Amino acid sequence: DADVTQTPRNRITKTGKRIMLECSQTKGHDRMYWYRQDPGLGLRLIYYSFDVKDINKGEISDGYSVSRQAQAKFSLSLESAIPNQTALYFCATSDSQLALSTDTQYFGPGTRLTVL
Amino acid sequence: GENVEQHPSTLSVQEGDSAVIKCTYSDSASNYFPWYKQELGKGPQLIIDIRSNVGEKKDQRIAVTLNKTAKHFSLHITETQPEDSAVYFCAASTAGGYQKVTFGIGTKLQVIP
């Protein structure tokens, strides 16, 4: 089984709809992240969480919100989706203990979101 | 904040040739430089990394070099194979706490059989 899973894998929605993307991990990591990937822009950080009670904005958090329901679960919500939120979304995890020497990110398979 | 520039955005090589991808960073405090490979339909996966106290690191056909003075680092793939075709991302961060991991825009590598 995959260590980091994302649901759904693909989603088409309409402008103005609320949508939630979910992420679960079995790696036991305390840190979790949401990124979006756009052609020519690479990976940009939306939100990150160091533990269940910690939520931080990334560089492009406007229009998004997150919830860390448990150490293993981190969800991303688009309250009112708009077409320029069409992108590939990745969840990632890392381990704060390992981060003392490295900060390897472990990515899920991604969710392709299309907003019409 | 940190800014990572990556070149080229696309790269085509013949099978067996070498491929080189270059990145520059702006924050002299960055001390950890990972490279990720993203295959079609999958999330990025770490393939090699280097810390700022090391100038070069090798792992079979891949190697990374780091020039702290010039603030640039490069990925070298030798004897390329079709399975090396993917998107490669460089990144920079400050390990040991939390500083945002900043990624380059990615390089799409195509290895032509």
Highlighted features:
heterodimer; A: 116 residues; mainly beta; 7-stranded mixed sheet; 4-stranded antiparallel sheet; 52% strand; B: 113 residues; 5-stranded antiparallel sheet
Question: What does this 3D model show about the protein?
Answer:
The complex is a heterodimer of chains A (116) and B (113). Chain A is mainly β and 116 residues long. Chain A has no helices and eleven strands. Chain A has strands at 4-7, 10-13, 19-25, 31-38, 42-49, 56-57, 65-70, 73-78, 87-94, 106-107, 111-115. In chain A, the strands form two sheets. In chain A, strands 2, 4, 5, 6, 9, 10 and 11 form a seven-stranded mixed sheet that branches. In chain A, strands 1-3-8-7 form a four-stranded antiparallel sheet, with no helix packed on it. In chain A, a hairpin with a 2-residue loop joins strand 7 (65-70) and strand 8. Chain A is globular and about 40 Å long. The mean pLDDT of chain A is 92. Chain B is mainly β and 113 residues long. Chain B contains no helices and eleven strands. Chain B has strands spanning 4-7, 10-14, 19-25, 32-38, 45-51, 56-59, 62-67, 72-77, 86-92, 102-103, 107-112. In chain B, strands 2, 4, 5, 9, 10 and 11 form a six-stranded mixed sheet that branches. In chain B, a hairpin with a 4-residue loop joins strand 7 (62-67) and strand 8. The N and C termini of chain B lie far apart (41 Å). The model of chain B has no long low-confidence stretch (mean pLDDT 92). Chain A binds chain B through residues 4, 31, 40-45, 48, 50, 58-59, 90, 92, 99-110, and chain B through 6, 9, 32, 34, 36, 41-46, 49, 51, 89, 93, 95-98, 100-101, 103-106.
